[in-house]
Automatic annotation (TrEMBL):
GO terms for molecular function: kinase activity; metal ion binding; phosphotransferase activity, alcohol group as acceptor. Pfam families: ADP_PFK_GK (PF04587). PROSITE patterns: ADPK. This is ADP-dependent glucokinase/phosphofructokinase. It comes from Natronosalvus hydrolyticus. One of its GO terms (biological process) is glycolytic process. The keyword Cytoplasm applies. Keywords: Cytoplasm, Glycolysis, Kinase, Magnesium, Metal-binding, Transferase. The keyword Chaperone does not apply. Coiled coil: none annotated. InterPro entries: ADP_PFK/GK (IPR007666), Ribokinase-like (IPR029056).
């Protein structure tokens, strides 16, 4: 059955009051368009578009290197800044706009707008950050008082004057910087890494199992925010602690955990996340650029296929995506990995939720993605009417047919739904109002709806 208005209404109704835990990273995104004004602010890099940026940005020239490199390659990218350079940008560069940023912040805003009841933890909550929550009255914050866990209003939590600001440099296809022309629209993020970031949360870590007893699922992200400045001797101790916190979260109840992956140029951190954090998930959310990095880090053997780094659409690429996801899922031992690509969404799974629930989640995620891309933000369920005006991608349908043929399966209304593979076309907005956070929108809306509807169909055979 094709996704229609009645299905949208049913999905929105299913989310009402759903309790979900969300952590760790919320910040403010300062949005800057890539144009002549930005070029005059930056310093021309050597070999624009060709040079790989350093793992910590320190100068305007290194920032220009990172932006032009991202414009020359598919997908977006993110690189951390030093505290000194972060302060320079805050003092000298005026953003075009500001909005909620950070995966936990973006996911909280979306889900609270759709009627979900989030419990959100983030390590910095300044007055500026607090003002970025669209529905603070619907969001609860965990606080430990004399050993007892309580959930309080965001209005009662202000723990710093400092605001974590990430700088987001957005460009459309055809935009140019230092002679490098973007072949597709995307963004580069220059991320701040304040020293206050810590995956050790004191007393809260010891009682987080109580959170697990009152929520249906958890959306966890932000592990990529670690830098060498946050740890004494490598990342292992901190990430082992973070792993133990996940285990403690679901020690008293069966809580599905979604971990949203994110790019970091720190290879050591990526490998430690791969070993210690990702295997703890029930489901992992990832995009094509991130999947390319993980394939390399995990040294996956998928025969003679390799992930393409070229621009343009190739329907056969879905076969490579499928093989990489299947190999990665097996290596990590997780139940499901969900890929959000430009033209389609693809889930590879084993003993996860019922495939019908996953299919509904992916279709709902496509509606949310189109709405976010068109409007720039989602603040109410009625906004999703915008997403319904965009048709499922014809290219996505074509790719999914290729995968279905390979698997000996059949599609229905462009979607593939089997016990181990689910795929649906995305709804693509050619000229998006913004690209930051669309992957987080897809993952959180898909995961929340999966949870909300899974119980109603769990007694049916796949």
């Amino acid at each position: 059955m094709a996704y229609d208005q009645s299905q949208l209404e049913a999905d929105i109704a299913a989310l009402d009051g759903l309790p979900v835990y969300i952590a760790y990273n919320a910040n403010v995104d300062a949005i800057v368009s890539v144009d002549e004004d930005l070029e005059s602010f930056l310093e021309r890099p050597p070999d624009p578009g060709e040079t790989t940026p350093p793992t910590r940005l320190r100068t305007k020239q290194e920032l220009a290197t990172a932006i032009t490199r991202t414009m020359a390659t598919p997908g977006g990218d993110e690189v951390a800044m030093t505290d000194e350079f972060s302060a320079t940008l805050e003092a000298e560069l005026e953003p075009d706009s500001q909005q909620m940023g950070g995966q936990a912040g973006i996911m909280t805003n979306l889900l609270s707008s759709l009627g979900v009841s989030p419990i959100t933890y983030t390590y910095l909550l300044s007055p500026t950050q607090q003002s970025m929550f669209d529905h603070p009255e619907r969001v609860r914050y965990p606080r430990v008082d004399d050993g007892d866990l309580e959930f309080v209003s965001l209005a009662d939590i202000l723990n710093t004057d400092r605001t974590k600001i990430n700088w987001v440099f957005e460009f459309s296809a055809g935009d140019e910087l230092f002679g490098v022309r973007a072949k597709e629209g995307s963004r580069f993020i220059a991320a701040s890494r304040p020293p206050e970031f810590d995956l050790f949360t004191g007393e809260f870590d010891t009682v987080i199992d109580q959170v697990g007893t009152v929520v249906d699922g958890a959306l966890l992200a932000g592990y990529h925010n670690l830098t060498p400045d946050h740890v004494d001797a490598g990342y292992e101790e901190t990430l082992r602690h973070a792993r133990d916190v996940i285990r403690q979260l679901r020690s008293e109840s069966e809580v599905d955990v979604h971990i949203e992956y994110a790019v970091t140029q720190d290879e050591s951190l990526r490998r430690q996340m791969l070993e210690l954090i990702l295997p703890e998930a029930n489901v992992i959310g990832i995009d094509t650029n991130e999947l390319h990095m993980v394939q390399s880090d995990a040294d996956l053997d998928i025969g003679d296929r390799t992930l393409s780094t070229d621009h343009g659409f190739d329907p056969d690429e879905i076969l490579t995506h499928y093989r990489v996801l299947a190999a990665l899922r097996e290596q990590l031992g997780v139940e499901c990995i969900r890929l959000h690509a430009m033209e389609y969404h693809l889930a590879v799974m084993d003993e996860y939720l019922h495939p019908d629930a996953v299919k509904r989640g992916l279709e709902f995620g496509a509606i949310n993605a189109a709405t976010k891309a068109d409007r720039g933000r989602i603040t109410a369920p009625s906004d999703l009417e915008t997403g319904m005006t965009y048709e499922p991608s014809a290219k996505g349908r074509e790719a999914i047919e290729v995968l279905a043929d390979q698997l000996g399966a059949v599609t229905e209304d462009g979607a593939l739904c089997t016990p181990t593979v689910v795929a649906c076309p995305n709804r693509v907005v050619e000229d998006p109002a913004g690209t930051v956070g669309i992957g987080d929108i897809v993952s959180s809306s898909s995961f929340a709806l999966e949870l909300a509807v899974a119980n109603g169909i769990s007694d049916r055979d796949p």
